[in-house]
Every structure is written in structure tokens, then in C-alpha cells.
Amino acid sequence: MPLLKxxxxxxxxxxxxxxxxxxxxxxxxxxxxxxxxxxxxxARALANKHGIAHAFDNTLALYDQCAPDLVVICTPNNLHHPxxxxxxxHNCHVFCEKPPAISAQQxxxxxxxxxxxxxxxxxxxxxxxxxxxxxxxxxxxxGLLGDIYHIKAHFLRRRGIPxxxxxxxxxxxxxxxxxxxxVHVLDLALYAxxxxxxxxxxxxxxxxxxxxxxxxxxxDWNPKxxxxxxxxxxxxxxxxSVSIMLSASFALxxxxxxxxxxxxxxxxxxxxxxPFSLYTEVAGELADIQFPYLEExxxxxxxxxxxxxxxxxxPSTVCTAEQGAILQEIVERIYQSADKR
Amino acid sequence: MPLLKxxxxxxxxxxxxxxxxxxxxxxxxxxxxxxxxxxxxxARALANKHGIAHAFDNTLALYDQCAPDLVVICTPNNLHHPxxxxxxxHNCHVFCEKPPAISAQQxxxxxxxxxxxxxxxxxxxxxxxxxxxxxxxxxxxxGLLGDIYHIKAHFLRRRGIPxxxxxxxxxxxxxxxxxxxxVHVLDLALYAxxxxxxxxxxxxxxxxxxxxxxxxxxxDWNPKxxxxxxxxxxxxxxxxSVSIMLSASFALxxxxxxxxxxxxxxxxxxxxxxPFSLYTEVAGELADIQFPYLEExxxxxxxxxxxxxxxxxxPSTVCTAEQGAILQEIVERIYQSADKR
Amino acid sequence: MPLLKxxxxxxxxxxxxxxxxxxxxxxxxxxxxxxxxxxxxxARALANKHGIAHAFDNTLALYDQCAPDLVVICTPNNLHHPxxxxxxxHNCHVFCEKPPAISAQQxxxxxxxxxxxxxxxxxxxxxxxxxxxxxxxxxxxxGLLGDIYHIKAHFLRRRGIPxxxxxxxxxxxxxxxxxxxxVHVLDLALYAxxxxxxxxxxxxxxxxxxxxxxxxxxxDWNPKxxxxxxxxxxxxxxxxSVSIMLSASFALxxxxxxxxxxxxxxxxxxxxxxPFSLYTEVAGELADIQFPYLEExxxxxxxxxxxxxxxxxxPSTVCTAEQGAILQEIVERIYQSADKR
Amino acid sequence: MPLLKxxxxxxxxxxxxxxxxxxxxxxxxxxxxxxxxxxxxxARALANKHGIAHAFDNTLALYDQCAPDLVVICTPNNLHHPxxxxxxxHNCHVFCEKPPAISAQQxxxxxxxxxxxxxxxxxxxxxxxxxxxxxxxxxxxxGLLGDIYHIKAHFLRRRGIPxxxxxxxxxxxxxxxxxxxxVHVLDLALYAxxxxxxxxxxxxxxxxxxxxxxxxxxxDWNPKxxxxxxxxxxxxxxxxSVSIMLSASFALxxxxxxxxxxxxxxxxxxxxxxPFSLYTEVAGELADIQFPYLEExxxxxxxxxxxxxxxxxxPSTVCTAEQGAILQEIVERIYQSADKR
Amino acid sequence: MPLLKxxxxxxxxxxxxxxxxxxxxxxxxxxxxxxxxxxxxxARALANKHGIAHAFDNTLALYDQCAPDLVVICTPNNLHHPxxxxxxxHNCHVFCEKPPAISAQQxxxxxxxxxxxxxxxxxxxxxxxxxxxxxxxxxxxxGLLGDIYHIKAHFLRRRGIPxxxxxxxxxxxxxxxxxxxxVHVLDLALYAxxxxxxxxxxxxxxxxxxxxxxxxxxxDWNPKxxxxxxxxxxxxxxxxSVSIMLSASFALxxxxxxxxxxxxxxxxxxxxxxPFSLYTEVAGELADIQFPYLEExxxxxxxxxxxxxxxxxxPSTVCTAEQGAILQEIVERIYQSADKR
Amino acid sequence: MPLLKxxxxxxxxxxxxxxxxxxxxxxxxxxxxxxxxxxxxxARALANKHGIAHAFDNTLALYDQCAPDLVVICTPNNLHHPxxxxxxxHNCHVFCEKPPAISAQQxxxxxxxxxxxxxxxxxxxxxxxxxxxxxxxxxxxxGLLGDIYHIKAHFLRRRGIPxxxxxxxxxxxxxxxxxxxxVHVLDLALYAxxxxxxxxxxxxxxxxxxxxxxxxxxxDWNPKxxxxxxxxxxxxxxxxSVSIMLSASFALxxxxxxxxxxxxxxxxxxxxxxPFSLYTEVAGELADIQFPYLEExxxxxxxxxxxxxxxxxxPSTVCTAEQGAILQEIVERIYQSADKR
Lengths: 341, 341, 341, 341, 341, 341
Hints:
15 strands; homohexamer; eight-stranded mixed sheet; seven-stranded mixed sheet; alpha/beta
């Protein structure tokens, strides 16, 4: 089987530390041929660092000269839609950083075009590839949870407003804590439920700390330029009375600096994801089950492999274009709910 | 000042262990003259045990013969309304066990009649009198929390469906985990916010474990007679974007057997109530503040005193008739939201 | 069903604190009619204390005057055999304190006579009635352990040579740590294996600390009068290659003052008994299972009930006469192995 | 003093990471001249990596061309005997990996030839060189333990069947957990007792988990090719009633993944080896003594030095040929005992 | 031997809960004949409660009517001197509460009169009778500490200004934290050194918190009536360069509510008293020694026995009149040093 | 602004690992031109290693050829005075390692000359630049401590007598644990009090362990050549009754190997420095405040920057010449006090 030709679009940190190393580890399936970035010099430097042949500051030139089979999009959120549409138009599979886009319509358009073209569009929610999540899915499959009916999902930082990048810029990011952090745990919660669409969505967003300033744990941020939510709270209700409570924050007066977890409640058992704990009955007694030997995995590598499997038409656990569209619609409905207030 | 004459209506456990002992400790303000119960023999035995002069199985006889100034209602939830209305009609102040009633209309009627008669009607939410809650209110008053904008409140049991009493009987209790447990933490959450009425309410209720049966930690329950919710989840959104997440369960596949707590998030500081922890900034650094010497208090005694203060027109922290009506309406809206599903 | 008439033989501490209280709690099945002790005054005092009608210092008088249906033997080890034989001869069921006797032949004779008379003879190994052991047996029955092939059992004290009683007297006790402590965990180990007889037994006994003296944690003992083993170590090998490692000590230079536990290793799962932990695989991962809500039980009461069930021909978990004979034979083989050295 | 010329026989992992680095650190006493391996290319690569002059795939060529003074044998267990005999025949001192051999007779022959030739044959039991063991020996010498009469020794893995190498091959390894792991702690236990020969040996071996398969913590093993014991239990009884309980496992349903320890019980004090704890009496009270500043040592380097000391006729703590023969005989007696069942 | 007749002077709490119960436990040596208190009614009530024959409000009447052999003085500090002098004048042995007196001259006079009369005067420093202190003295005697050269002694409360009694009254108590708490640990420190007299004393006292008021953990105190030191710090230097650092507080901004300990540093070993830990070398390694089985003792009973032994001329560990005089002089020198500032 | 030319005097470890790396990080303010050491070869090697142009073994040549603007003195204590005086005479700012000198007069002379020349002389007490100390100073400035009245400061090692260098040489070092370790925490304590001069000083020094020998945790030391104190204890009393307790040791029979801390007691709050904890009242309750997100800082770099700020006349937290003279006088008074004994 010939190697797939791959190109990176967006030459920032996530390309350098996540996607390029992962792709280089799967050299038996992929040839990484080009990097395309806003700044040609930086793109070339990155390409050289990783031994990649070509560098561009222009995607059309990239498609023209390299004819990649797949591209990985690592640009700010507002560029995901135009760049993915262009890539699909050039018959490329697309592996896009999260969140899918900055509006529901964008994500829907992207999914539709991928379907129409018969190409794979997928999103990089790599928490799906942790040992904990894999075990959750195995427990679910083995019937250890019974029917899942409620999930609490949160991704909270105490003072984790990034002091760099465009994270507080509404136009480029489309939102704040929910868009950047909340989507990770929302994707998992939805995945555990086979990605349903909610009947009702209720949410609120906040920016009191972000706009006030203070001590930062991820660098110093500028409260005057803080345009997004520092916290988002939401409740989703689904058919059959299934429900999700979702909390996300860049800044919140809570204990932990970083607190990311899910609790999944089923009729037979409940799971706390990190560290993985299963609460159920064994031999007629209430039992707490720990799994002390779960391995840490390279979840980026595994998610890249899952994307490649999808491209090749194999079963895959990567977040699909359709799932991304559902998720993006929920995010939009949370913001709409919050905006009414 | 002459002593207030008090009578107990409902001769069960809560009267025996909470209200009568508390009233006997305030003998300088109250004379406990009678106990009225369904079963005259039991009522008399309880009266004898505590040295109370009279026993009745008929409230009209009680009012006729003893003319109490106040009554304490300790009967099942469905009797709160008729007995409180009757007591107010007989010009008695009323100290009623929680929840206020089994419908919003009942609680509203009760509040209206109390206002009309110029009498005190109050509910026994005694968590308000814990040292932790008093400290929370002092921190709030001292501005240590800034503006409160989000509260997470939960009262969860893993397998705490009571194996006795009428707790699983819908007609007598009006509901399950929300009605019995959730109201305690909901009252606190609302109190921290000065008891606003929500714009929107969204909730779900569950009964999968309750109806399936299994190991019980509060005796064995009968899954066939389980008519109420074993868990309730809700989200409340208030004006100015304030929000509450509420969780209550009799049975849930979670770690702790009993987990009752509130997290109160404000712009300056956040509080976890048990054990009381304040998360804020001190001297420009993120600070975690513990209070290792908070005393345990006799919260029933303090709540009884707060009720007496209210009867005498003094400032009081007891849950008022008006607050009870707001709370009961929220409970009803949660059930209505859940019933749609 | 008429009440069984019961008598206590041996008016010491174990009768006063364990057997009499347990029998009084089952007054719906047993009438406790007499106490028989060496010293008539003490026997009478004990009878009075517990409201028992008769006291004797002579078992023949007891049988003659009271005609009990069952007796409980609470005397030193060397009296178990003669008193049990006499009781069986008088057509009484016998509930005998552990160990069964001081020789294998005695225990065998007792079992034979019980069989011949069609009476119940049972031994008071009450650890069988702990929640932990009941859970072990349920796990075994549910197949969670697979085939059990090795058990480590120990009952170790660091300096627990009793400073009172006859515990260091060889003639009265028949042995030391093995006879007094080791038999408890040996009974459990054998019970988990359905009470097989070992192919081979190898053991050693020690008395260096007991004969040297030093600090005592259960009073001061007299090293000059120390005639028994302060520690016993043994290895038992059974058909199908099943094995047991057994350790017992009154005195040993080890960390814990009291360390009593069993580890049961099976092909599917392994159990550590205190606190109960199950080590196995769940959903394809190695799992540690804890049971945080095991109740403490009144194991003496439960064992007394188990004995009564046996007397009435019902299924029972009490240690039978046959099991006691097997256990006593193993104890004797351990001492014989040790004596060769 | 001229440098000793050394050669490595067996170019695998243990040579690469243990023996060669240790020998290079003692360049003032030893010149490492050659590596001999089955595969010449690999041997040469290893030699090059460490700057060693010669590489062979043939021991006769090695002896012929290099005439080493000593060899280090790092091959599979079944080659220890032929290679050691050959080396001794070529007048080389021999430092052999553990276990000594795969039969008692082999180890006895090797010891006899070494004696006959006046050469040093020693085995690499490097736990002897840990700070903990050195402290144990000092405590013993200072009389802090009194007479040692019982030792519990275990080396247990929960699921540590190696997924590589020949560890499950009976012909090459001679056995499983006992041969590979148990010998380490057996050597220490025997050493603490001055290496006596047991009067009696009783043991059992198991393979239920190894043959069933499942989750592996040291790679995945093939249950179909599993020919050795996954666990071995044994009891050794020595003159003067001294005893050892020995447990070793590749796979066992126990808590810890790796649990390697010894408990040494003496009349004056007892020691738990890891972390080193001494249980004794101080000033008339029971005392627990910890040693918080024990250094970690390079135990391989120290054992290599001990071997060199032995070669030079100096006092040494290395495991001698005679000790190795005694140990191998005990291992064989354990297997023989187990095979009867 | 005839019983000693004993009387209690001062009918407060310390008499009721400490001295009278202890004396009643030694009824084989002492007959407790009278209680003398300021208020005759209370004295009689206390006497009745404990079955003591006589009650007085006048010591002369006591001596006249009862002729006691010994008295126990349980009155405020300023009465210790007059009452002890009077008791000695009436030929009574005296067991006096701590501190000895409120001036050095008083304590010296008391000691001189006791010597002159050949009577026993002793002080109730009962920490001397704890298991920890007894073990310290045994370790010292066994040479485990070598030469003791420095001691750190502290008795600190965070907010433990008693809200009752005369503890903040300078005239009655003679001082604050040093006089009430510091003397306990100072007595131990001096005792460990064989009660030397210091060459130099340097100290400071404080009252900033006591005079400011705030949260109290031993009731509420009145900052306006706070006349004593809330904290005292001192350094004592003795011949041979031995030194003591002493810290005592009723109120200090420190973590623990009650922190009472001594560290004793010697050339061979050092001890932290609570929990007892010995830091030394064992077998050439630095060793930490714990004593997990120290018993809790009834230190008041043991100190009362020690006083009786002293009265009978036997060796005793009770604080003697001479030691009390030395201690009181040191306390006075600390206050004098502090007053200069 | 032109770069300052800097030279290092003393080419040992502290220059190599602390001062040179720090100076190289501030290359925008300083040009490091030379290293001067006793041994020219070593000085040159150090210069080469760090890319410094010149090396000398003679300070006069250094001043002659390089004309530095500042020098950093990294030599043994007895050379601080002559080298600083010489440097000031050559119009250089001086950054001198601690302690300032080996006598009070030396430090006073150095300060006077610096003042006279208008140059900066400062000492490298880098603990001032830890996050903990900066937070302490902010808390003090914010009034959170009220008036500080007592400080306990200690720097204790259990067996930390350095086995290298001149640390035990009285002539070169001027003293032992106090001179090397105690000065660090004494500087902080004085700094918290605005560097007052004590009214009274009382101290003791010891050398029993140092002269006896034993296990070392910082290499092996020679007890025969041990000329300094292994421990020093002191008490300082200042105007307004402020006091400091100071403890320092190279060797002491205490638990921790290294225990360095300060407790600062004020009228409003108290601080334990490591980990930083503030004990005070919040909202009327006793509160313990932790700061879980204090960053570790490069305190050497920050102290070097503080020195440069001082050279440029900016506000600075570096230890000044005047402070150094006060500190050195206190050290001398402690030794004088100890020498009387």
C-alpha cells in the first residue's frame, strides 16, 4: 500500500509538539511532505527541524505543488472552516484541531462537504485515546454500567487564562473556556451516550475574573483585552431523560489549579474517570473498584492512528465530522442560552 | 415577658429527638404544653417521657383545651398544609418541618394566610445554623466573596433509600430525593443569593436503582413499592445570569455513602462549605484558607431560637413563609420539567 | 416448637461475656437453665447476674436435675474431651469452645460418639461469621476466585503472651500459640478448601522469647513457667497440589502487636481478608476491589444461631465435629513434625 | 599488580547494562578484552559500543586468542554449566549469572572443578550488596538479632511473566518463578543462616494463571508456550529447628505488582528488609527502629568488586561456588517435592 | 502501718477531678478526712460527693479538729505560701499544686521550713509521671543520650486564654503563660539536667493579643482585665555551657491550638518527647527509634503515690521543695529580665 | 547605558555554579571580563568553560589590566575583608559571599570604606529572594502581621558537617554552624525587623559530635581536625522587647537531615516560612492560610539583579554593607557570650 502524503497547515506549537511527532512515528503509513504557515520563514524552520521537504505560506501553492492526500489543520479556530472546505475541495482527508469551528453552521457545512466528497474529516479530541476512556468504553460494552442516565463533566482551571496566543480574542476563538476546554469533556460525555442531540439546553457564561485581572498561573493576561467567557456552566437534557451537567473555566475561585474529570452514572455502575474508579455491586455488596495498572498512553499518536484508520475505511474511534457538527451545535446553543441573560 | 405556650403536632422521631429537646432547653421562653399524635397512646407516652402535661389525637381538642401560642408541625409532608392552615386559623405561630408542603400552591396559601393573620410561619432548615453557614454569611458580608454568580449544591446518598417510614410513598411525601434531601441544600443556595426566583428551570428525575433493588445502607427497601425519584438533577438560571446546579439522590453509583456540600463561586472568592474552605487571593497570591477551629453547634436549638426570635419580631435567620413558598415553587418547576421527559 | 434447655459448663470469662449474652438474645429458641462451674459460689454469682435459675459444681447433678437439651463447654482445653463425652452420653447437643481437644484421638472419639448418638457436636470458631468471611464464601460461590490453590494464614502477636490464666501450661492447654491462636485461621483456611486432609505436614515450634521474658503487652508472664511454644510455623500440602502456609505466635519480633489475616489465592482472583480486598481482572484490566460498607456483625451471636440451626438439622456454617477432628489431627501432625527437631 | 584480563560470554542485555559497565568502572583492576556471543555481528556491535577490542562467536577462539584470566557468563541458565566447566578448564576465574545451573549435579560439578583447579567460581546475587543487606549483617554481628530461627522470604509479581526472552521455556531455564526470582531471596535467607543444608524440604508449584493468559505487566506472554511454574511455595526446615518460608511468583492474584522482601526473626530482634526496620526492645520498651539515611548503592559494581576480591584471595561477600551448589540442591529438592503432587 | 490522715485545702476543680480521686485510689495508705474551702457550703457538697467526713471553711478549725498528717493545697497561686507555711507549722506534710508560689522568696521560705521541720513539701508536676518521661529517664540512665547539652521546651496555646477563673489576674496568679504553663515543661527540662541553677537568664514577655481580644478557644476572655503575659520567651544558660530555650503562650499566632513538647539533645542521642522519638546511631547508621506501645498512665495517681513515698522517706520522683525553690527563682529571674525591657 | 565590567575573585564551586551563571544571564547589564583564583591553571579553565576572556592569580594584575567596575568575592571567609578593602580602594562595587567577614571590626571597616568611597558593598544572602520571603514582606507591608515581636529561626543539619573544603577550620572560616548556616536565617530575621541592634545577646556553642566523629551525610569529616562549633544556640533581645531565638547546627541528634525555617510572630498574624503558612483571623474565626501556587524562583539570579540595582542607585533588597556590619557584630557577640562558658 502506497504511503499517504500529508501536509500540516498552521506552523504553531500544536503542530510542532503533537501532530508532526505523531506523524513521524507512523512513517510506515504516511509521508509528511509539507508545512504551510502564515510566515514562510517560520514554516521553513519548522520543516527543517523535522526533516520535512517543503514549506509554504500559501495553501494553494501547497495543493498545487504537493498534491497531499491528507492535511492536518492546526490554525486558530476561525480558520478551521475555510481551510477544511478548501482541503476537501482539493480531495484531501482532513484532520482538524478542536473545536470543529466557531459556529454550528460551519461545522455542518464541513461535514456535508466531506460526505459529499467521500472524504474523511475528523477532529483531534485525543482524550478519547486515554487508557481511562478505553476502559470506560469496555466497561460499558461489558454491561458493567447498565443504562447510563446522567453525566457530570467539568474542565476547570483556577487561574489558567493563557497569557499568550489568541485565547481571549472572541473573533479568532469564537469563545473562551467552553470553546477551548469544555469541548474536550463534552465530546467524551456525548460519546459515552452515542452522541445524541439534546432536547433542551440551558447555560450561563461569566467573565468577572477575566475582566478584573489578578494573579495568573499560565502567564499574565490582559484584563482589558479579555473578550470571552472565563467560565461556562450548562445543563443538557436528552431523550429518555438522559442529562449532562457541564462546567468549564479558565478562571474560577476553586481549589485545584486544573480539575478535569467526568462522572458517568449508570443503573448498574458509576465511573469516575480520573483516576478510574468503578462504583458498583460485587457478590451482593457495594464495591469500589480501582485499576492500579492502567498504562499512560501516547494519546496523540493513538488519535492520529485512529484518523488514518478512518481514512482507510476501517473502524475508528476518532471524532467524526458528524459528531463534530453535533457538538458544535450544542456549544452554540449553550452560548445562545447564556446570551439571553 | 410571659412564656409562649407551645404544642407539638406529630409524635414521631423528629419530635422526640429534635424539637422537644430543643424546646425544653429554652424553658425561659417557652412552655411546652401538649403533644398531639395520630395514636393517642403513643402521644401520651411521648408526653410522659418528656414531662409534658397534655396529649391529644385531635388538633381541635388541642386548640380548644390548651390554646397554644405556637405549634411545631412534625407530620408527613402531605399534612403540613392542612395542619398549618388550621393552626394559623387558631392564631398560632407555626414552626413546620421541611419541605414546606407538597405543592407550590399549598406553600403559597400558607404564606398568604400567615401574612394576613400577622403570624410567624417558618420552616426548619437547620443547616442554616451550622458554624459553616454562619461563617459563609460573615465572609459574604465582609466582601470576601465579591459577587456570587454560580453555586453547585448536592446532597447525594449512594444507597440511602430509607427502609422505614413513608419516604418512598409519592402521595404522602410528594417526591423523593429532591423533596427530602435536595431542599436542604437548595434552601442554602437560595439564601446565599437572597432568595431570588429563577428565570428558567431545567431538571430530570430518575428511579432505575430504586425500582431495581439491591444492597441498602439505611435498611432494606421494597423496590416494588418505590414510587418516587431516587435521584434528581436540576439547573436554575436567575436574573443577572446567576446559576445553580443542584443534585440530590437517595441512590446513585457514586463513591461516598453521604455527600452533602455546596460550592459558592464569587468574583473575589469561592467557598467549599464542608469542611469550610475559602479560595481567594491574599497579598497578591492565590490563597487557600482553612478554619481549623470551627465549633460544632446544636443547630436544632439555634434554629428553634431563631424561630422564637421571629415570633417576637426580632431579626432572625429562620426560613420564612415567603422563602418557603419560593423554594416550593422551584421544586415544583423541577418536577414539571422532569415530567415532560 | 418448644424451647431447647441449655446449660453452661465452665463459669469463666468466655461464658460471661460471649456465650451467655448470645444465648439470652435467642430466648425465642433457647431457655438457659443452669451454670456449672468448679466453684459453686462463683457459678451461683454468674447465674444470678444473668438471671439463670440453677447453679452447680457437678455436671452429674446438672444432668440429673435439669436434663438439658444442649450444653456449652467453656472450660480449659484438657476438659473438652471428658465433658463433651459425658454430655453426649446424657443425650445433649454440645457447643464446645475451640480448640476441639488436646489430641487428635480425643477429637475423633468425640465426633464418633456424636455421630453414633445422632447429636450435634460443634466448635465455636466464630471468625466464620464475620462479614469478611461470608463475603469470601459468596465470592467463591460466584466463581470470582476460580480454583483456590494456595492460602497464607497467620495470627501473630508481638508480645501477647497472656499474663493470666493457663495459657502457658502445657498439660492444661496442650500447646501454645498454635493451639490458642493458629487454630482460628487454620479453620478458615481449611473451610475455604472444603476441609481436606493434607498429604504432608511440616512444622517447627519455638520458645526463645517466651522462656527469656521481657516486656509484655497482655500483662507480665513468667518465663520460668513458660512450657508451650511462643511461635509455630507450618506448611501443609494437600491433594491436587493445594497448599497452606500457617504462622502463629504469642511472641515474635515483628511490627504489629496483633496481626491476623488470610490471603487466599485462586486462579481467577485472590483475596486478602482484613480489610477485605479482591484482586482480579475486570474488563480486561487488573483490578483491586474494596468493599467499603461491610458491616461489623455480632459474630458470637451468629455462631450460636448457626449451632442451633445445626441442632435442628438445618443447613449451618458452624464448625462440625468432623471438621474439628480433621483440624485437631493437623495440629497434632504439626507438633509431631516440630518435635522431631 | 598487573590487570586481570576479562571476557564476557553472552552478549545480551545483562551484559550490556550490568556487567560491562561495572567492569569498566574497575579499570584499575581489570582489562575487558573480549565479548563472545552466539551472533558475531551482535557481539561485535556490543564490543564496539563499549570500546572492547575483540568479539567472538566461539569460546574456543576466545580462549585461544585472548587467554583471559576471568570470564563473566551471561547466557541462558542451561549454558551455565558447560561454559563454566570449559572456562575453568582454561584456567579462568568465573563470574556466573544466577541461578548457578539447572540441576544440583551441574552446580556440584562446577564447584568441584573450581576447587580442584584452585580457581574462583562465583554467582551474581547482587542483592547481597544492597545497603539493607549490609546493615542486616552488621546488626547480626552486633548481636542485635540474637539467634535467628525463622525467615520469611518472598519475591512476588502479580502479572510479571516476561513477554520476551526464554523465561517460560523449561529446557532453557530449568524452571520459572523459583529459578528466576525465588533464588535471589533464598540466597539471602541462607546467607543470613550461614548457608546450612535443610533436613526437610516441602514445596508446591503452580501454573494456572500462566497457562490461562490475561493481562501482562511485563509485555504479553503466550499461555500456550508456558512450560514453567508461575508460582512456587516452599518450606525448609534446618537443624536446630531453624525454618524458612519461601514464596516466588511470576503471576499471582495479589496486590502489589512487585513485592520482594525478607523478614528475619531472631530471639533479640526481628528485621523487615525493605525498607529496613528493626523490631526489638530498647530501654525496656518495645522499639521500632528505622534508618532514614541508608544510601542506595550500585550493587552490581559492589558485587563485581567482591568477585575480584575473591579472585585475589581476599575476604569477600560474593556467593561462592559451594554456596551456589547448596542453593541449587535446595531448588531441586523443592521441584522434586512439588513434582510428587 | 497506720493510715495517713489527709485533708484537701481548696475545693475547686483540681481537687474534685484530680487529687480527691487519686487519694481515694490509695485508700490502703491514706484516709481522706476533710475538705476545707472558702465557701463552707461548697466544701460540704464536695465532701459529700466523695464520701469525706468533714468540711471546713477555716484551716485552723481543720488542724484543730482533724489533726491531719498531710494536706493537699489546691488554691490560687498567691495562697500557696501562707497555706503551706501554716500546714508545715502544724506538722503536716504538704502536697502543693504548681507553681510553688508567686515569688522566689516564698518558695525558698517554704522549702526552708519544710527542712527545718523534717517534713515533706512537694509540688504536683505530674508530667514527670508520664510514660514518655519515665522512658526518657531510663534512656538517660542507660547512656543512650550521652551528655545532655541543650533542651528546647515549649508549651504553646494559640488562643487558650482561659475564659474562667483568675488566670488573667496578676495579683492572684503572679503571672500568665509562664506561671501557668511554662513551669510544667521547665520543671521537666531542669529535671533532665539534675536541677541546676542557671548562670544567666534572658527573657521577654508579651501581651499584645491578650490585651486586644478576639476569638477564644477556651471561652471568651476580657481583654480589658488582661493583666498578665500572653507569651513568654526565655533562654537559660547553665554551667558547662548547658542551655535551655523556653517558650510558653496563652495566645500566639501559631498553627496548633495546643503544642507542648520538649527536645532533649545529647552527645549520643536526642529525644523528642511527644510522641517519644529517639534519634541516634545503631549499627553505624543514623537511626530513628519509635516506641509504639508506650502505655498511657494515670499520671496524677502516680504523682500522688510518689508524694506518699517521699513522706515515708522512700526514693521518689516527686518535685521536691528544693527543686520548687530553684524553679521559682528561675521564673522570677525571667520576669525580671523581661521587665527591664 | 554602558555595560558594567565585572570580575570574579575566587574560582571555586560557588563561582562556577552560582555567580557566573547568574552574571551571564544579565549580559544586558554586565560584561564578565575576568576570573582571579589562587591557582592560575584552574582560573583559566573556569574562564574558558564560561567564555570569559581573562584569568589571573593576582588581584593587582586584575585591577591593572581589566579595571573592573565591580567584583564578586567568592573566597574563604578570612579573605573577604582584605579583598573587599582592596576592591573598594580600586573603586569597584563589591558583591561579597556570606558571611561578611570573620570579625565585627572587619565588617564595620568594609562598610565604612564603601560609604566613604560612595560604592556599593553588598552580601549574597539569597534566601531574601525566595518567593516565600517576598510574600512575607508583602504580608508585613499589608499589615497582615501587625507588630512583629518574636522570631524563631533555625538552620539545623543532623549530620551535615561537610567532608570537604575548609568548613571545620577555625582560622579560615571564623566559626562553624553559626558562621556558615545560622547567618542565613539570622539575616532574614533581622530583615523582618528592619535590622535593629540587640540590647542583649546570650548564646552557647557546642562541639561534642563534631569532635567525636560518626556517620556523615555530607561526606566523612575528620573529628581530629574539627575546630569549630557543630551547634550554636542564641537568644537576642531588642528594644521594645522584640526577641529572636536562633539555632544552627552542622550536627545535632534531631530528626531531619536539613531543617531550615523561620516562625515570625506578630500581633495580627504569624507566619511559618517553609512552606509558607499564615496563621491569623479571617471573618472573626481563626484561619490557616496556605499559598499553594508560590513559584520557585532563581534566587541567585534575583539577588544578583538586586545587587546591580543597588550599584545603579535603585531601590534594592540586597543585604547592604551596613546590615552586614550589624549582623557580623551580632555573630561576634554570640561567640563572645558562648566563650564565657
